[in-house]
From TrEMBL:
It comes from Altererythrobacter epoxidivorans. Its main location: membrane. Keywords: Cell membrane, Membrane, Transmembrane, Transmembrane helix, Transport. GO terms for cellular component: ATP-binding cassette (ABC) transporter complex. GO terms for molecular function: ABC-type transporter activity. The chain crosses the membrane at residues 66-84, 96-122, 143-169, 181-204, 267-292. It is a multi-pass membrane protein. It comes from the Bacteria. Pfam families: ABC2_membrane (PF01061). PROSITE patterns: ABC_TM2 (PS51012). Belongs to the ABC-2 integral membrane protein family. This is Transport permease protein.
Length: 300
C-alpha cells in the first residue's frame, strides 16, 4: 500500500471544528433544524409581492379588464333605460335610470372580481407554471389573501370607472345617502365573488370549466338578482327564489346606500343582510382555505 500523508494537528482541529459546527446546526444553536421554517408570522414581503404581481397582471391589459367591462355596463344601462325607462317611470321613488345604476355598478364589480381570481391558479395549471405560486414561502392563507385582495382591487377600479361614467350621464343622479352601505355591500360582494372565483380556479382543469361557471352560475344569479326590477313585482314563488340569491342582498344593499330605499325592507333588514353576507363569506373562505390547503387538483 502507498504511504498515507500524515495528518497535521491543524487539519485534525479543522475536522473537529466542522463536526462541532454540524452538531451545533443540528441542535439549532447556529442554524434552525432541518424542516423548521425560517420565516415566522406573516410573510409580508411575499404577500405584497404576490399582490403586486396579480395587480400588474390585469393592469397590463387594462383595456380588456377595466375599460371593457365599463363600456359593457354602460351598454346595459342604455338598453334597459331606453326599453323600460320611458315616460318618466320611477322605481322606489327614483327615476328608472337612477334606480338601475347602482345595481349595474356592483354587478360589474362582482363579475370582474370573479374573473380575476378564477384566472390566477387556472392559468398556472394550464401553462405549467403553477409551481411559481406553490413553491415560494407563502402559506395557504397568504396565497389566498393575495389573490383575493388583487381581485377586490380590480373590482374597485371597475366600479369607480363605471360610477364616473354614470355621473356624467345626464339622466342619472348618484347621490350617496349611506356611505357605510355603499362600502360594506360593495366590499362584501367583491369578496364573495373573489372567493368563489378562487374555488373555481382550484377545481377547473381547463378554461371551459371556468366559462361554464360564468355562464351557468354567475350570469343567471346576476341577472335574476333584482338589478333591473324590484322583487315585489314577482310572483310569491319567484320572490322566495330571489331572497335565496345572495346577489340580491348585495345589489339591494348597495342600492340602499345610494337611494336610501331598498326592496329588502328598512334599515334593520339591510343591516341584517350585511351581517348575513359577512357570515356567508367567512364560511366560503374557510371551505376554500381547507381545499387549498389539501392541495386538491393542485399537487396531484
Amino acid at each position: 500500500m502507498a504511504d498515507q500523508a500524515p495528518v497535521s494537528p491543524n487539519t485534525e482541529m479543522g475536522i473537529a471544528d466542522t463536526s462541532l459546527a454540524i452538531d451545533n446546526a443540528g441542535e439549532g444553536t447556529r442554524f434552525p433544524p432541518r424542516g423548521q421554517p425560517i420565516i415566522t408570522g406573516i410573510n409580508r414581503i411575499g404577500l405584497w409581492s404576490l399582490y403586486i404581481k396579480e395587480v400588474r397582471r390585469f393592469l397590463k391589459v387594462h383595456t380588456q379588464t377595466i375599460w371593457g367591462p365599463a363600456v359593457t355596463t354602460l351598454l346595459f344601462l342604455i338598453i334597459f333605460t331606453v326599453a323600460l325607462g320611458r315616460g318618466g317611470r320611477e322605481v322606489l321613488g327614483a327615476p328608472f335610470a337612477t334606480f338601475v345604476a347602482p345595481g349595474l355598478i356592483v354587478m360589474g364589480m362582482m363579475q370582474n372580481a370573479f374573473a380575476n381570481s378564477s384566472f390566477s391558479l387556472l392559468s398556472g395549471k394550464i401553462q405549467g407554471t403553477i409551481i411559481d405560486l406553490l413553491m415560494p414561502p407563502l402559506s395557504e392563507g397568504e396565497l389566498m389573501t393575495g389573490i383575493i385582495a388583487a381581485a377586490v382591487t380590480r373590482a374597485i377600479l371597475v366600479g369607480g370607472t363605471v360610477a364616473l361614467a354614470m355621473v356624467l350621464w345626464p339622466s342619472i343622479h348618484l347621490g350617496v345617502e349611506h356611505w357605510w352601505a355603499v362600502i360594506w355591500f360593495g366590499l362584501m360582494g367583491a369578496v364573495m365573488l373573489s372567493i368563489l372565483g378562487l374555488a373555481t380556479s382550484i377545481w377547473a382543469e381547463k378554461f371551459d370549466h371556468n366559462a361554464a361557471i360564468t355562464n351557468f352560475v354567475i350570469a343567471p344569479l346576476s341577472l335574476l338578482s333584482g338589478t333591473f326590477y324590484t322583487i315585489e313585482n314577482l310572483h310569491g314563488v319567484f320572490q322566495a327564489v330571489s331572497r335565496a340569491n345572495p346577489f340580491f342582498y348585495v345589489i339591494s344593499g348597495f342600492r340602499y346606500g345610494f337611494l336610501g330605499q331598498s326592496d329588502m325592507g328598512d334599515a334593520a333588514h339591510v343591516a341584517m343582510a350585511g351581517l348575513g353576507l359577512l357570515v356567508l363569506n367567512l364560511v366560503m373562505g374557510i371551505v376554500t382555505y381547507r381545499v387549498l390547503k389539501s392541495g386538491w387538483k393542485l399537487k396531484d
